[in-house]
Amino acid sequence: MQMLADAPTFTDIALAIRERMRAGFEPPMAFEYGRTRIPLNVPTYGADEVIEALDSMMSGWMTMGKKVKRFEEMWASYCGVEHGVMTNSGSSANLLALSSLLMPSGGEIITPALTWATTVFPIAQAGYVPALVDVDRDTYNLSLSAVEAAITDKTVAVMPVHLLGNPCNMRDLMGLADRHNLLVIEDACEAHGAEARYGQRVGSFGGLSTFSFFFSHHISTIEGGMVLTSDATLADRIRSRRAFGWIRDMSNKKSLAEERPDIDSRFFFQYPGYNFRPTEMQGAFGIHQLPRLEGFIAQRRENAAYWNHEFTRYGEVIECQSEQPNTRHVWFAYPMLVREGAPFTKKQMADYLEARGVETRPIEAGNMAIQPAMQQIKYRAGPLPNAQYIHDNAFFFGNHSGIGPAEREAIAGYVHEFMKEHGI
Question: Among candidates 144, 137, 142, 139, which has minimal Cα distance to 111?
């Protein structure tokens, strides 16, 4: 009996795990110029997130619950929108948002050609036709003149993408959409905390917006996404369709159940739905990640400002982005475009950085119109010279919380060395 009395309790074990977990998140090793790898992303989470997730696992409640709901409310409030519906990924958020709309099947949704695949594919999967338009070369975001030229009597919506954290011109886009009676669905998956007009955050302009909390984004729930809207009826429909189409999370579930007493209200399906539910562990991560976001943004902006200052001297051979007036760019990554006539190619520059440990990648999926998968769906595309030019000549490297003064100065140093080798 004495041995049993001395055995550690569940609480003792939980406290020991917490202490070991906090000790396990050690600071990174010192950076060595030319030797230390600079990846596209690093983990943004620490002991608090892991401990919160472990609490959920030990509680026995692991599918979406109170922590998911709390993060939904926190994120909606941060973005200035009434309702948040968390999903298992940003890709699912796009498909869920689009498939919850009551618009004519086969209608066209205008979206930029320069984007990630899961902006375009869900449009087709939800029964609509992607209409790909060109982008502005300086922002990489959809061109308003191209949008206006693409509008036909089949157009039902516009889906702008705040690419790489650079906010679109939402004031003029919303005006254009209003004139043509078009819904706006913002893909803000890479633009956490970006501001498109005088302090108004992206995700709060359109009738719907989506975010991703994938591992590589500003804040992360490892996998995860969110749909935002201020339309209570639409939010109810989205909540239902997120989980099979049942009524459990709908505000009017009681009245719906009363109309059909012959159906068990616990298994009452109002809409055809999916299983896009997040886990409670994802919600646990989110409630601790959001308070860190502004600090992450500040670091990314400081890095980008440093690189812009360092690379201004090379304006004849490369183009770097700058922040548009009255906006806040949150720099998901740092893009560079090699100008026509430069004495080197995109590949040569990217390969040089890679050889020194700086991970690079193309600008999203590049020009989606030339991806083989597009031949398997119905779509329409206008002239895409800028999207193709960026596809051919631009790349990006990482900009994240793991890049401090030593890392950003090293990247600048590598670029200076590359330029010197090419006589610039």
Answer: 142
**Could you say which of 243, 271, 292 is where a domain stops?**
292
**Total-model pTM:** 0.94
Determine whether 83 is an active site residue. Answer: no
Q: Which of 162, 192, 217, 218 is catalytic?
A: 217
- Summarised one tens digit per residue, pLDDT across range 43-94 is 999 889 998 998 898 888 889 999 999 999 999 999 999 999 999 999 999 9
Taking a C-beta distance cutoff of 8 angstroms, is the pair 357, 34 a contact?
Answer: yes
For residues 97 and 211, membership in a common domain is answered with yes
Q: How far is CA 104 from CA 68, 101, 123, in A?
A: 32, 9, 13
Give a yes or no: residue 30 inside a domain.
no
Do 306 and 270 sit in the same domain of this protein? no
Residue listed under structure tokens 């055995």: 7
How far is the C-alpha of 237 from the C-alpha of 240, rounded, in Å? Answer: 5
Examine the domain organization and report whether 213 and 152 are in the same domain: yes
| 277: nearest Cα among 226, 316, 231 | 226
Question: Tokens 């597009």 map to which residue?
Answer: 374
Q: CB-side exposure of 210: number of CA atoms within 13 Å? A: 29
Nearest to 231 by CA among 262, 208, 215: 208
Domain that holds residue 107: 50-292
- CATH code at 285? 3.40.640.10
Domain count, the chain: 2
Question: Which residues contact residue 290 at a Cβ distance below 8 angstroms, ignoring those fewer than 6 apart?
Answer: 71, 74, 75, 78, 219
